[in-house]
Write a structure and sequence with these properties.
Elements (H helix, E strand, L loop, with lengths): L2 H26 L5 H9 L6 H34 L14 H6 L7 H8 L1
Helix pairs in contact: 1-3, 2-3
Length: about 120
């Protein structure tokens, strides 16, 4: 995709990244890490060890998911810089504009993404 055509996607990706980072900060309670926030939220005197461990596991899973989303956005921004944004990583075909508008972090065309998910 030509550089001039990527500007709207880059803007959308940067906004998405800022939103994700704000969400992470809010959910973590500021600059506190997910594990520390979990310990504060779920270590009440009446909680059992199993409750605390389950809550901590959930916090780590949420952190992994949020971090993965940021990595996808960062990878898309890198593809813009490299000049390969909008090309499927697997088949090399152009990813349809409609797909990129809906999911600007998409790295694969729909057919290749479906193959990957199977």
């Amino acid at each position: 995709m030509k550089t001039r055509n990527t500007a709207p996607f880059e803007k959308q990706l940067l906004a998405q990244r800022a939103s994700l980072m704000e969400q992470l900060t809010t959910l973590r309670g500021g600059a506190v890490g997910r594990a520390e926030a979990s310990a504060e939220h779920f270590s009440r005197a009446g909680d059992t060890d199993a409750q605390v461990n389950s809550a901590r596991d959930l916090e780590f899973a949420l952190d992994d998911r949020e971090s993965a989303e940021i990595r996808l956005v960062d990878a898309a921004l890198e593809r813009i810089k490299a000049g390969s944004y909008g090309q499927c990583l697997d088949c090399g075909e152009n990813i349809p504009q409609a797909r990129l508008h809906a999911a600007p972090e998409a790295a694969r065309c729909i057919a290749c993404q479906e193959k990957l998910e199977r």
